[in-house]
């Protein structure tokens, strides 16, 4: 069959649906709110570093409240399940959540010490695992960074354990403050990136 008798090529069907640009339009229009939220989080985190004791109490009370709410949600969900075995299991878990939250709110000072010990144990365990992983991946370039991260986590966990119970007054608050600072900087960088590379409809041309 000659080329002249071949059927004309079918034009490509335009793609439908939402593009990435269409999803970024609301972000571009509200980049200022994202930037403002990031700045507030950074300032709040800096305040938390100064007032670590206050942030420690706030973090523990927030943990207790979240446990109570989670327990209530689980218990409500249990009554929607079919089968008594599944329902009893969820009810038990929900009751444990509520009991834990109630104990935390009833005696937040003891809860602070218990959560600090848990954080220290997690840091020690995480550091030890990272050290083991680092020696297992020595053929990779990044193994040294993994090793350094593991050593730092291990030393920080040991330091917190040695400083107990005094460390309980600042550890949780400091961790919360650092998390707020990192979260705030993330918002700020995202807002700057959206504003500088996207005009709300099309990507901005490179300079």
Which features does this protein show?
globular; mainly alpha; 207 residues; 76% helix; 7 helices
What's this model, at a glance?
By secondary structure, this protein is mainly alpha-helical. The chain contains 7 helices and no strands.
Describe the structure.
There is one protein chain. This protein is mainly alpha-helical and 207 residues long. The protein has helices at 20-29, 31-50, 52-78, 84-106, 108-136, 143-163, 171-197.
Outline the secondary-structure elements.
Elements: H1 20-29, H2 31-50, H3 52-78, H4 84-106, H5 108-136, H6 143-163, H7 171-197
Helix pairs in contact: 2-3, 2-7, 3-4, 3-5, 3-7, 4-5, 5-6
* Structural class by helix and strand composition: mainly alpha
Bulk shape: globular
Distance between the termini: 51 Å
- Largest sheet descriptor: none
Task: Please compute the radius of gyration using only Cα atoms.
Answer: 26 Å
Strand content: under 5%
- Considering DSSP H and I runs of 4 or more, what fraction of the residues is helical? over 70%
Order of H and E elements: HHHHHHH
* Overall pLDDT: 80
Question: Total strand count, please?
Answer: 0
Low-confidence stretches: none
- Give the number of helices: 7
